[in-house]
């Protein structure tokens, strides 16, 4: 079972800062035993090519883009396409983050189009789903995120869905104002995701106020097989520490039935 542990830097780091992080990460990985842990980093688009040049001969770390348009080219001023981020070195693309939905008008339909475009070009979609605080308070978290996931994956074949990663990121738990989720708040959403998609997708990740003091607990929640980390991993030493925690936790974990199904499918 692959344990996905990655970080998106959002609108942070210059090219020089991103290069320094990437070099430090590779140096820090030397001699480390990651086991089943698969690291990935998602820098700003301005740094993609530079970071890709550092990582390309190493292959231990996957590189992602924070967004891409659903059209391959055209009159979309300010946008970047999937072929463009792939050309810059991206191997996966983050799609549907709540900040994109809230501030840039992304809808379930545009998210669906982006997922399809990423798959069409052979990259891995990292689909973000998550509910706001009022939905949590009403007890409708699982229903909300299942609706988001279903809309994003609508019309895809089983083979295509098997290449998708889903990151559950509750809106109330992310960002500087977010609060860490209690494990009991995550069990039902992950059980629902696992029941509907866990045997089909490549992995179910959790993101939202992830830190060294709660990473092992989060990975111990049934059906969580990865972490999508924000500011707690923006310094390379902090990210390496979180990778160590994930590797230690994964080494002690007994896979649940959904994990076994996923592992069997992805190896075939």
From TrEMBL:
Coiled-coil annotation reads none
Where does this one sit in the cell?
Cytoplasm
For this record, an example GO cellular component is: cytosol
GO MF annotations for this entry? triose-phosphate isomerase activity
EC numbers listed for it are 5.3.1.1
| Pathway the protein takes part in | Carbohydrate biosynthesis; gluconeogenesis; Carbohydrate degradation; glycolysis; D-glyceraldehyde 3-phosphate from glycerone phosphate: step 1/1
What GO biological process terms are annotated to this protein in UniProt? Answer: gluconeogenesis; glyceraldehyde-3-phosphate biosynthetic process; glycerol catabolic process; glycolytic process
Keyword Isomerase appears in the UniProt entry: yes
Q: What is the residue range of the signal peptide feature?
A: none
Q: Which Pfam families match?
A: TIM
Enumerate the catalysed reactions: D-glyceraldehyde 3-phosphate = dihydroxyacetone phosphate
Query: Which keywords are on file for this protein?
Result: Cytoplasm, Gluconeogenesis, Glycolysis, Isomerase
The domain of life is Bacteria
Recorded hits in CDD domains, A to Z, give:
TIM
The principal localisation class reads: cytoplasm
Q: How does it assemble?
A: Homodimer.
Q: Give the similarity note.
A: Belongs to the triosephosphate isomerase family.
Name used for this protein in its record: Triosephosphate isomerase
Where does this protein come from, organism-wise?
Arthrobacter sunyaminii
